[in-house]
Design a protein that fits this description.
Number of strands of chain A: 21
Oligomer: heterodimer
Number of helices of chain A: 11
Radius of gyration of chain B: 20 Å
Distance between the termini of chain B: 21 Å
Distance between the termini of chain A: 40 Å
Structural class of chain A: alpha+beta
Strand content of chain A: 25-35%
Number of strands of chain B: 0
Largest sheet of chain B: none
Number of domains of chain B: 1
Helix content of chain B: over 70%
Helix content of chain A: 25-40%
Number of domains of chain A: 2
Amino acid sequence: MTAVAPYRSPAAPGKAGFARALRAEWTKFRTVRGWVIAAIVAVLVTAGIGLLATGGGQSTCQSASVSSSGPGTANGGNCLLAFRLGPDGEPVSDSFYFVRQPLAGDGSITVRMTSLAGLLPSANPGNGSGPSASVPGVQPWAKAGLIIKENLTEGSAYAAIMVAAGHGVRLQWNYTGDTAGLPGPVGPANPRWLRLTRSGDVITGYDSADGSHWSQVGAVTLAGFPARAQVGLFASSPDSQQISQHFGGGASVNGDGPTQDTAVFDHLATSRGWTAGPWTGRYVGSPETPGVAGYRQSGGQFTVTGLGDIAPVPAGHGGGADPAGTVSDYLVGTFAGLIALVVVAALFVTTEYRRGLIRLTLAATPARGRVLAAKSLLVAAVGFITGLLGAGIAVLAGDAITRARGNYAFPISGVAEARVIVGTAVLAAVASVLALAIGTIVRRSAATVAIAVMVIVLPYFLAVSAALPLSAGDWLLRVTPAAGFALQQPYPAYEQVTMLYAPLSGYFPLPAWGGLAVLAGWTAAALALATYLLRRRDA
Amino acid sequence: MRSALHAEWTKLRTLPGTWWLLLTAAVLTVAVSAAAAAAFHCLPGSCGPSRTGADPAKISLTGVDLGQVIVALLAVGAIGGEYGTGMIRVTLAAMPRRLTAFAAKALVTAAAALAASLVAVGGSALAGRLILPVRGLSAANGYLPLSLGDAADLRAGFGSVLYLTLVALLAFGVTAAVRDSAAGIGVVLGLLLLFPIVSAVIPDRPLARHLEQVAPMTAGLYIQVTSGVQALPLTPWQGLGVTAAWAAGALVLGGAVLRLRDA
């Protein structure tokens, strides 16, 4: 008996197996004319629909707010829409009553606040005298406290420690910064002691419930803060907002009218280098209702009444009539590009089954996981490039067209624009892989496209078009793969500004990385199942 | 024609996928509608009096938004599958009158879609009738439960059935024109979603209103509105007419492609 040696191929085992599989998949992709055309179509619709939406037709500017030109103003040409810009270039609202004096160098200021009351607009304006605050009540973000500010120009740098009526003690700085201190409301029985200390560029805020036990709320650095700054008491109270639900289920927010607040302070004292002279009051910015704001001093007690807000202005603040173009508007075509990409990714695997090519593919690369990995990498690359081109063209051309037409584009930094463009590319890449994985599981092209569109695009559509109640739309954008659209969020949402942060204005319930995690999680799960099934099932 | 219908019915009914799709369309529509009704809650001031405030019929029929995808998929598969497998050549060899074969296939598909839609819409309305009164749209707030006796509710319900059937015909025509299942469903879904998303962001309100008037999905779903009908850009039946026009256009295009091109 002689043992027969089993046959071994004399050919050397393939090295670079993955590179070879990848090259094979690339050849398959680029030689099918329809797929290349579909990828180009994806770029065109991503860029084109957004441009159609923002560039098409005449923008209606009748609701544009007052124009006032001056330093720190972004002016929007014909639309005459103006925002004050803050120190970091973001649009801000800077309007409040200020009891102040200039103080130079380092020092510290302390005050006790015993009351914060206010007025809200009445439900029925009635007698035609225009909107005015008349019903007792206080806006949750009515604020009063201590502030140190670069100068009296709107939009200048500042740091402030305050009590917000519904949000406790806050340390806020340069419009976007916000840190919470002691919670709970303020009143005669539970006063709040506030302190601001300046040391060079560093401003530190402290709070205390009794004036002897102090805790630090936070310390902020205001780079380049001038030696001589305006220091004092302030009060502000933003317009009340009412969120109303449409008959279809969606919601909108209506500016309900101006509000005002009145704060009572005592034990005002300066120390550590600051020696206070007499206090004078003035309004910073222009009050929405004239003749309301002011202050009264009797003995050591200051009663300050203010309105307005010291806060960032989010995109879409003007509601549906907001004429300012945003990056989200330019990118509205993304959904159509995703549908085209989903079709390509689905066909990339399902046609192999229809034509029987899969048997040849698996004969050439018996490591089935490797085939799927190569295919995934390829559609991810195609999706990424498609998304990058589509979003890049949409954003750059959208900006250019908006400016050329003299319409106002909501300010955004170049970094944020780049982040949104790359975010769209990542969204397109991961969504394509998800479609590929679904295709590997389902093996039928039309069903794959329908499922992929239903889980990726349809939830986004339902949430954006306000076809669902607000909470349901939010929930869809948290748990479905459509959460990945959060990668396109261009502007941060601010807790300290009451607004309807709706997906249509570019605000998603999850942060960008959270949305990516949800989408990537679904994709990983689908890929795992696809790999398992590809290995277990006959091709 | 009768034998053509019989042949197409046999093809459709003997595919297990057909029955799964019909079942999915009905179950998914009812489930989403019930979820939307259960998620509904009255914000202060939003549950105004009947016919101007919240719209119980529209909320109850939310699932149609999702159900239409499955119904479209059914229609896409009915014709796209023939091209995918090469069956179309057998079909046309057996029935050389191409338009007869096309019409028979469209009729059978529409009938299947209609049947599934009846179940889907009926279940959705029933779910809304049971759930919505608990969620604040009760008789105490001036809302009557959904009823077949109410002309507007009846219009919303049967209109939705017709809408789903028209979407099936639209998908059928488009797929016949592009001759590929995946491309067909992609084009149909893009067409349905394109108009409402664009009209939502367009700054030009009059143009946005015109877009809504010609959109196959937005205009067609006006048929579900029973509250604030006067504020719509079109009357509900005109809106459904827009969807019908899109479906007719797609069928003409699909029929022409089938008639003129080699299969």
